[in-house]
Amino acid sequence: MRRIVSSFLLSCLFHLPAVALAHDNTAPLAGEEAFTPPTVYEQLLRALMPDAEASATITVDGNYRLIQGNGYPDYTPGNFPNAHNPNAIRKKNYQLRVPLNPVMGAPRATVRTPFGIALNGVLFDPGTAEYWRNDRNSGWNYEALGGACQLGLDFSNAHVQPNGAYHYHGLPTGLLDRYAYRNSPALLGYAADGFPIYGPYGYKKADDPASSMTQLKPGYRVKSGTRPSGPGGAYDGVFVQDWTYDKELGDLDECNGRVGVTPEYPDGTYYYVVSGEYPFIPRCWRGTPDSSFAALKGGPGGRPPGAGGNHQPGGRPPQGGMGGRPPMGGAPCQGS
Questions:
Q1: Which pLDDT belongs to residue 322?
Q2: In what order do the strands lie in the sheet with 187-191?
Q3: pLDDT < 70 regions, the chain
Q4: pLDDT at 160 (0 to 100)
């Protein structure tokens, strides 16, 4: 077994310059406009707080990359419980693995399984357990960052499930703070299928590291017209089903990825992008996900209703998401 990363414990000295970088005078990320950046006091407080609780290791064993983590971020998270999320963070014992040499294939839906895991041991888990009128058979699944629910998100677009799992729903700002991500593609983690996950900036020419850096744009848009069933009303991004992929738009495929070179993969690879616009975190894989991720939600088919994260109805748009409209035709986002 060959150790790749012995630990993801980061010191305050490493964090301080990164905080200054995260909110410099460059153009904001798509999605950053929806929330207020932390004050100087908050940034200093985060920088001075010890990160010793965070722990993650990545090793290679044969044909697999083994990932262990306790699910606690390597920065000071928001306050949990809070007014819109009653759950406290509890350390986990994630024992995950992904293929070392994933093979690209047809898109495969995530089906309520965590998409991947960040280098700091926090899960990327974009889905929700909430459906229109709490009816899973309705086919109308509330989008976590669609504006219908107050999620109690912290500054990193993360919150806590009832089981204590801290997880990302959108741009992991606290993690991005660690990198000069506008200057070079930033490796953030690995998807369940083994392909790497990068931040929102990449080379303008995917196969040319000498080309300029650009914020990569997803290819999704809100559908036109009105919903034919369920909640009715005009499509507005509140539901996952309000969105459609248009290959003529953006830089990324339907799984929010592309083939290109990165500092870690100079010969090129398929890689995913976490973006500031829908789908934020990818909703499908291009490889075969390892079963260790499905086991986090009780196996294939995902978590049962009511296990999502205690989303509360109404209120201001979530950080990094669309404005949306209040829930229609029922009382969603309860008890998860």
A1: 30
A2: 158-160, 166-168, 123-124, 116-118, 187-191, 196-198, 269-273, 257-260
A3: 1-52, 297-336
A4: 96
Domain assignment present for residue 336? The answer is: no
Given this model, what pLDDT does residue 326 score?
Answer: 37
Q: pLDDT value at position 34?
A: 41
HSE, CB side, 13 Å, CA atoms: give it for residue 321. Answer: 33
Q: What is the pLDDT of residue 111?
A: 81
Indicate the DSSP class of residue 252.
S
Alpha helices in 55-178 (DSSP H): 173-176
How many domains are contained in the chain?
1
Beta-bridge partners for 60:
2, 65
CB atoms within 10 A of CB 271: 25
Judge contact between 280 and 145, C-beta under 8 A.
yes
Q: Which of 274, 89, 53, 51 minimizes the C-alpha distance to 173?
A: 274
> Is residue 293 within a helix (H) or strand (E), and if so which, with residue range?
helix 291-294
At 50 the three-state DSSP class reads coil
CB atoms closer than 10 angstroms to residue 136: 13
**Do the domain assignments include residue 324?**
no
What is the tens place of the pLDDT at every residue in 45-56?
455 544 558 899
Measure the CA–CA gap between 285 and 289, rounded to whole angstroms.
7
pLDDT, residue 56, reads 95
**Distance separating alpha carbons of residues 115 and 240, to the nearest angstrom:** 16
How would DSSP label each residue in 193-250? TS-EEE-SEEESSTT-TTSPEEEPPP-EEEPSSB-SSTT-SB--SSBGGGEEE-TTSS
Q: 318 in a domain, yes or no?
A: no
Write down the residue that tokens 């100087």 correspond to: 40
Which residues does 137 contact at the CB level (< 8 Å), separation at least 6? Answer: none
CA of residue 52 relative to chain centroid, distance: 23
Structural domain boundaries, residue 102:
2-313
> Distance between CA 107 and CA 182 in Å, rounded?
28
What is the spatial distance between Cα 91 and Cα 165, in angstroms, rounded to a whole number?
7
In a domain, 138, yes or no: yes
Question: What was the pLDDT predicted at 325?
Answer: 38
